[in-house]
Amino acid sequence: MTSHEPTAHQLPGIAWGGEPAPAPAPGAGPLEWFDSWLAKQPDAPAVVDGTTTWSYRELDQAAARIVRALGGRVTRGELVGVCLERSAPLVAAAVALARIGAVYLSLGARPGAARVESITGDAGINCLLTDGTTPPPPGWTVAPDDAVDGLTVARRGGRAKGAPSDAFCAVTTSGSTGKPKIALLPQDAIANLVRWTCDRLEIGPESRVGLFVGTTFDAHLKELWEALSSGATLHVAPEDARGSMAELFQWWRESGLTHCLLPTPLAELAFTQPWPTGLALRHLLVGGDRMRVRPPEQCAAVVHNVYGPAEACVLTTTHRVRPRSDDPAAVVPIGQPLTGYTVLITDEDGRILPRGRAGEVRIGGAGLALGYVDPQRTAERFVPAPAGQPYVDRVYRTGDKAVMRADGTLEFLGRMDDQVKISGARIEPAEVEAALETHDSVRHAVVVPYQGTGGGLRLAAFLLLAEGARADEDAVLAAARARVLKQAVPAVVRFVDAFPLNANGKVDRALLTRQAAPAASTAPGASTAPGAAPTRQTPRAEDTEAFLLAACRRLLDQPDLTVTDNFAESGGTSLAVARLLALIESTYPIRVKAAEVMRQPDLAALAALVATRLAASARG
Question: To the nearest 10°, the Cα dihedral for 526, 532, 535, 538?
């Protein structure tokens, strides 16, 4: 380096992704791009959902039927709650609402009544699209005449609250006040995302894109619109593919999938399994958490580690991950900004730090949300850019901590506040605390994250009971499940007489975290490798019931689990199911599906199912 060249610490912590990528079709946004392909290839497959395949024409016709069912009672700019799982009807609903100019907001499949009320009340939502299998929340009515293609329309009285005219869709994120936040995304933000993915990931009419992530995650919008905007085919992932590596690989192979996005914990589990040959997979995106496991050498797809908050439209930065590294223990970076984005590293006062110094990530540019439904929250997080910035005048304060290398590559260092990620979902412990405190027996709740033996973060709840109340863990958790995402339901619950305090007189959360950890560390076969089999104090595989009980105790961080406990109700997330099935499939010459695990009334029944399959396998 010559004396006049700047050092890393002299370069400012700013990275710009460049001008937006070219559009995948004529028009200015996703709906127009869909219409371009509809006109060009009406009979080409648009959506594959199990045994159902809809062409672009059939998808458009299904969307038109939904528009007619809404009967002009949903207007432009109105938020509509969509309570559907990944499916062809979900895709049709997204197209229909875009046609109307209404704002699509996914609440997930069959959300709890309390969560629906919290979100719809704040947003002024008076219309829900549901699958009709769950009764509507109190105060909502379903008109049978409005049913169409398996969807039902639930309504309630009152005046709907409108969103800004340029809002295209909305997403929910966890809120520190105990209520979810609703971020409004403009068409330009979705369009910028689609432009980049279609251009850089080479998505076109011959591509087969997976609709894999859950509909409570903003990333499903990327999957949906990048496929429809490029003339590609969108393949809806079967539920079993989300809970079993064998089923995931089989789906990839049978569908000929070329593009997929996996949550980080699930991708890391996949990378530890024998990698299948003969896949058509060309690009695999991994996001939602810090990446620790690199892809195997056998993975022919280009793997991208991606980062981006919902408030900046799903993806903000990306980094190509090589199978090998000179330092296998080195942090996998989150990369550099997508086209149209600017990323800055600042101190807490918003001053730009030099490269090499850790600070808060602030994001500006074409992918930025309009803000939240709540103007006060918008003012707190969407702020003016530091003076003198040539590319942006407004940025989002992420609360994430990162450092920018000399070449502009970012390394993610975690959160600057209490927010955590559990199985890829952003969770505010304060929101979980508020949900627990809705139960009459709980006077005060403190929720802390801890490192579980299954390889990821879990939540522990410490509860102070109201005077004269009885400790009832099941009832308290049931109240929480109705209000928060399933990933946010605590894995450990402890009732306390008082909370420990630190020197400042505040609740000593660090001590509570340490107190939560022993419950995990004493579990049989404690091992921190994602998807690893128990390595000590593990019963013989021949003793199916004892073997699976030990495995579930470790995976769920529940050392007191018994064979009469239910897997799902004991904290069994989709990631825990995937890890359990990976263990079963590596131990026994059988295959069990994720749905079968979740259907079993208790662990004894699960062990009986495995034993029955083993016996059948032995008979040939």
Answer: 80
